[in-house]
Amino acid sequence: MTRTERTRVAIVGAGPAGLLLSHLLHREGIDSVVLDERDRDQIETTVRAGILEQGTVEVLDATGASERALREGHRHEGIELRFGGEGHRIDFERLVGRGVYLYPQHEVLKDLIARRLADGGDVRFGHRAISARDAENPVVEVETPDGERYELVADAVVGADGSRSVVRTLVTGSQTGGYFREYPFAWFGILCEAPPSAPELIYSASPRGFALVSQRSETVQRLYLQCDPELDPDSMSEAEIWDELQARVAGTTLHEGPIFQRDVLRFRSFVAHRLLNGNALLVGDAAHTVPPTGAKGLNLAVADVLLVADALIEFATTGSRAGLDAYPAAASHRIWRAQHFSWWMTSMLHAAPDETEFDLHRQMGELESVTASEHGSAYLAEAYTGWPLARL
Ligand code: PHB
């Protein structure tokens, strides 16, 4: 006989979405269990995204989920677009009166985990969700680090378990059920020990391909090179990587330093056909994936979670399904705007391998339309810093 446990909300995935949801539910007295197959150290040390929209930081701060993001995050009031050998600053603050914060995702995770544990939250590291069944009366089959199995029975189950979601099949009927697009390029990302090379991020479209100069801290930098999706990250020497980066951001001399992490990020756009089935829901990367160019992934997950938290609070306190049933339509506006923005930034800045001369000139025309026009720049600034959130 398999052991059975009960909770109000079973949350699969201890990423930003799952942990924030658990925190917001706790504030209204609603119990949840968060499951993640990874251990705490893995979650807190894996380096992922770095840019938080102003609204994301405000939510984290106002709900007591992370006061550090606002205090210790670096506020950026613009980015630079570089093309045709020249830099063009997009001044977010002047254009839309908003900014973004450079505050690494693993720091957000450290804050959320510390908060959940300090509040007595039930976060089960090393507990792998094997499957989820019965959307009306959800049951999650779980395996402990010792290989023991138990069933977690809940009023609702939320898949916050990333692009390889176990909950997705229960919601959409299949693992792949969604709108999907794959891109013919990827980013080769590095982390290095060096001071920042520029005060703000540089997005550079060069004839050799795209490069992004991002940051992590005063001593660690994150940089990316557009590459073939099949590139072996160990196939380039450090000198080759720096030469390529320097060539693609001509005009700025990058501060070089030892490279201590390399990875290749595939570019995919995905939106699940369904976000809700009965009492089973999808949020964050389990529901949708964006290419990294617009830095929208984590922010979009937070926006989903605000809607789902309110819906589950209403469901738990009044029994009304109104918020739950409204979730897919409510979330999809932002999801598709972010899909468009991420695709647009990507297509504007990257040359595909089969790009024609026409395409390249059209791309320059597009970059000029954005940088030479107040209205073009303002669209980028508005989307990059983030559209208004439901709660704020
Ligand atoms: C990052 O620092 O990882 C980063 C920043 C901006 C992006 C994408 C990734 O658009």
Write the layout of secondary structure elements.
Elements: E1 3-12, H1 16-27, E2 32-36, H2 40-45, E3 51-53, H3 54-62, H4 68-72, E4 74-76, E5 78-83, E6 86-91, H5 92-96, E7 100-102, H6 105-118, E8 122-125, E9 128-133, E10 139-143, E11 149-159, H7 168-172, E12 178-193, E13 202-206, E14 209-215, E15 220-227, H8 238-248, E16 259-272, E17 276-277, E18 280-282, E19 288-289, H9 297-318, H10 322-349, H11 357-372, H12 374-385
Helix pairs in contact: 1-6, 1-9, 9-10, 11-12
The chain binds P-hydroxybenzoic acid (PHB).
Description:
With 392 residues, this protein is an alpha+beta fold. The protein has a domain at 3-76 and 99-180 and 268-352: FAD/NAD(P)-binding domain. The protein is 37% helix and 30% strand. It contains 12 helices and 19 strands. The strands form 3 sheets. Strands 1, 2, 8, 9, 10, 11, 17 and 18 form an 8-stranded mixed beta sheet that branches. Helix 1 packs parallel to helix 6 (105-118), helix 1 (16-27) runs parallel beside helix 9 and helix 9 (297-318) runs antiparallel to helix 10 (322-349). It starts with a strand and ends in a 7-residue tail after the last helix. P-hydroxybenzoic acid (PHB) binds at residues 49-51, 201, 214, 222, 292-295.
